[in-house]
Each structure stands twice: as C-alpha cells, then as structure tokens.
Amino acid sequence: MNATTLIELGLTGLLVALIPLSLVWRAKGFDNKYRKLVWVTMFFTFDLIMFGAFTRLTDSGLGCPDWPGCYNHSNPLLAHAHINAAQEAMPTGPVTWGKAWIEMTHRYFAMAVGVLIIALMAMAWRRWIRSRGAERQYRPWFPTALLGFVCLQGAFGAWTVTMKLQPVIVTIHLLLGLTLLAMLAWLAARQNPHLPVAPSGRALVWPATIGLALLTLQIALGGWVSTNYAALACTDFPLCNGKLVPDMDFEHGFTLWRHLGMTADGDFLPFQALTAIHWVHRSFAFVVILYVVWLAHKALRDEGLRKTGRWLLIIVGLQLVTGLATIYLSWPLAIAVVHNGGAALLVMLLVMLNYKARYAPAGIAEADSQPAVAAPLGSV
C-alpha cells in the first residue's frame, strides 16, 4: 500500500476523532478536559464494539479483503472497479458495496479510537512532565499501555481479514476489544469521586473479580458461537433440537486452530460440532447469570455500590431476554447486536464494581454510614 493511501486513512481517522474531541475541548480546565476525554474514549470504544458486532453479524468482515485499506485504496469509492467485479461474480458473496462500506466504516472508527488514545496519552505525559511527577492522578503509564494495547488490537484486526475470518483469530479480536474497554472503564472510574464503601462492600473484592472472570469466559464462548455461525444450531428452548442433551461433537467444535466451517483435517464441520458450541454457551450462561445476580444482590446492600448493583441486575435481565429472543426469533440482526452490547455493558459494570470495592473511600458500618462524597450525576 502506497504512502498516499496510508495518509488518507490516517486523516479519515483523525476527522472522525475530531467529533468527540470537539466535545472534550469545550470543557473548562485541564482536569475537566482530561476526565471528559477518558469517558468519551470509553464510550466511543463501546460504540466501536457494537459496530464491530454489526460488521461480524452482517458477514461484512471481508467486505474489503485486504488491510488497512480497500483494494489498496482509502475508501470503497476509489475501489469501485474491484468491488463491482466481485459483486457481479458473487452477488451475495463476501464483497459487495454494502459490506465494503460497513467494513471500512468499522476501520475508520477503530482508527479514531486510536487517535483518542494518543490524545489521552499526550495529555497525561504533558501534565506529568510539567508537574515533575507531583500529580499522581496523571501518571502516564496506564494511557501509554492503552496505546500499546490498541496497536495489538489493530494487528489482530488485520489478521482477522488476512486469515479469512479464522474463528480463533476473530474471537481473540473480540476479547481484546472488550479488554481495551475494561481498561478504559478502570481509568474512567479513577477520574470520578465515589460514595464510601462499608466493610461489607470491601468484602466483595474477590467475588467481583471472580464474576469478571466468569463473564470473560462466557463472552469467549459467545464469541466462539458467533464466529462459527452456531447461533441457530439449537432453535428451541429449554431443549436443544428436542433433547435436553443433544447429539454433540466437542472434539471438532472446540478445536481452536482451524479454518471457518472446517475441521482441523480440512473436512466440513459437522452439525453436531455447531450444536456443542451453542449448547455449552447456553448452559454456562445460567451459571454466569446466577452468580452475577447474587453479586448484584450483595452490592445492593451497600450505599456506595448500590447503583452499580442495580444496573447489573437490569443488564443481566436484558441479556437473558435478548439471548432467548435470538433463539425464538431466529437470530434477528438488531437483537443480536444488542446482545453483544449487553455483554460489553456487563464488562464495564463489573470493572466499575471491582474498582469501587477496592478504592472507593472507606465507609463505616451500614447502620451508621452517611454519604460523604457526592457521586457525579449518571455515574455507575
């Protein structure tokens, strides 16, 4: 790819990033600008994950079969001859005008997130150097790690395309995106004051950590369902293909290194393998739901964690409803995208819960506790 195309792609990412950056620069004072940039970057990353789910669920991942451009161009309009030829050869194939624009829009948003993180890192380093390390809230190590992580995520985005949507690569790409969101949620939690947390809330440090680990495993299983197109392997509930325990092929279903739709030996993936993938994700979902509901119930007992616990219950309920709807309604696109977004929201909420349980101001016993620090409007 020539330098002109790379410059055009970089400028496009910068232009997209200017929209959230303009909102940030309207804030008064460096502290407010930095805090707002952290939160804006987190929510922009959440939007990117949602659009990534839309890209994957519309089979647009190979809409432009090279990377980072589209047939060595910065946008599909310049690649019209290649796209027209591919679409005429396969009207419903992986390359069409609609899929090309969806894929490139996803890449533009990803580049914009990179620009936002660079701006975040630059602000942190500038303040850290000027204060000679006196202002610990601007320690630049975490923002710098974010930049390294987003570069790693970009590499897996490239491999997703060049390795033709190999399931394990696409699943890792999803998990890295959610890890980036979790890191931003942790950084965002550091920017806001929080209500005091009583000793009972402090006791949730390890349960909250376990909850985040269980959710991560469930998201990995969900990503494996999505990247293997196994969402409709079971079309009934609570049974699966009329059985409580259907015929399943775990060996082929959970062989990680293989091409999409194929076994490791190069044969077509049997339907029983897709059933195993779907059934494991569905079954483990109830373990995660029960645990998170229990964790949220514990959080509701503490004033400092109550709002986060309440939102956990709401989003878990949303996940249950959208998960069942994808089965009964044969996987409608909008509901499937919302289901992916719900998983991302749960990641953010559990990260917030982990942060508050560890670092919120210490409170006294619940019976005598009084809120000492007002939480900002809308904080979770």
TrEMBL record:
Compartment list: Membrane
Pathway stated in the Swiss-Prot or TrEMBL entry: Porphyrin-containing compound metabolism
Topology versus the membrane: Multi-pass membrane protein
Transmembrane segments: 6-25, 37-57, 108-129, 141-162, 168-189, 201-221, 279-297, 309-331, 337-355
Key word Cytoplasm present: no
Keyword Secreted appears in the UniProt entry: no
Annotated keywords: Cell membrane, Disulfide bond, Heme biosynthesis, Iron, Membrane, Metal-binding, Oxidoreductase, Transmembrane, Transmembrane helix
PANTHER family, alphabetized: HEME A SYNTHASE (PTHR35457:SF1)
Protein name, as recorded: Heme A synthase
Organism name: Herbaspirillum chlorophenolicum
